[in-house]
């Protein structure tokens, strides 16, 4: 299980913008068409964030020509060039699936007023510090597990050596 975590941590992208559900985001996504590669911008409201660590995904919803379009992006995908935050939304839900039934102005998320850059930056810093604390706690837990596994392995090896020594003494007698 620790092997999986190490592989996932290698694939993590640390330069991901910190956004929340309700924010209007622009996702710059790399698209390969034949031999050419281009960047396509998908702008919409983030209606859900799911998963943890490297498996984290977010859902973006936009209205295109009167039709609702949703797309799910992995946050740490190498195909995502960058994520920009256009507007900060004010919501009191973690999933905004109710927006699917809304049309027109009713489908809009109210903007977080007074969200000055300083306040938002401070909020982002606190979120990042919480994330780093969680990751350091997880790393400490992983090292503790590794140490206990190593201790158990040495105990097993020592017991095997003791059994061999006893078997050799008995064979000599």
Strand content: 25-35%
Q: What value does the average pLDDT take? A: 81
Distance between the termini: 46 Å
Report the strand count: 5
Shape, please? elongated
Main β-sheet, spatial strand arrangement: 4-3-2-1-5
Number of domains: 2
Largest sheet: 5 strands, antiparallel
Task: Please write the CATH class name of the largest domain.
Answer: Mainly Beta
CATH architecture of the largest domain: Roll
Number of helices: 2
The structural class is alpha+beta
Helix content: 25-40%
**Order of secondary-structure elements:** HEEEEEH
Question: What is the rounded Rg?
Answer: 25 Å
Topology-level CATH name of the largest domain: SH3 type barrels
Keywords, separated by commas or semicolons:
173 residues, SH3 type barrels, five-stranded antiparallel sheet, elongated
Brief sketch in words of this structure:
By secondary structure, the protein is an alpha+beta fold. It is built from two helices and five strands. It has two domains: 16-112, Roll (SH3 type barrels), CATH 2.30.30.790; 116-173.
């Amino acid at each position: 299980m620790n092997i999986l975590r190490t592989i996932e941590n290698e694939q993590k992208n640390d330069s991901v913008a910190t956004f929340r559900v309700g924010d209007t985001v622009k996702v710059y996504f790399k698209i390969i068409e034949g031999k050419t590669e281009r960047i396509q911008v998908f702008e919409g409201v983030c209606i859900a964030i799911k998963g943890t660590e490297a498996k984290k995904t977010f859902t973006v919803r936009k209205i295109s020509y009167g039709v609702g379009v949703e797309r799910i992006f992995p946050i740490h995908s190498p195909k995502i060039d960058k994520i920009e935050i256009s507007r900060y939304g004010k919501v009191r839900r973690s999933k905004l699936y109710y927006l699917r039934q809304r049309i027109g102005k009713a489908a809009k998320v109210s903007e977080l007023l007074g969200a000055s850059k300083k306040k938002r930056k401070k909020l982002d810093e606190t979120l990042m510090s919480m994330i780093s604390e969680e990751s350091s706690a997880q790393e400490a837990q992983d090292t503790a597990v590794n140490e206990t596994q190593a201790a158990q392995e040495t105990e097993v090896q020592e017991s095997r050596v003791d059994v061999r020594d006893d078997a050799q003494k008995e064979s000599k007698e």
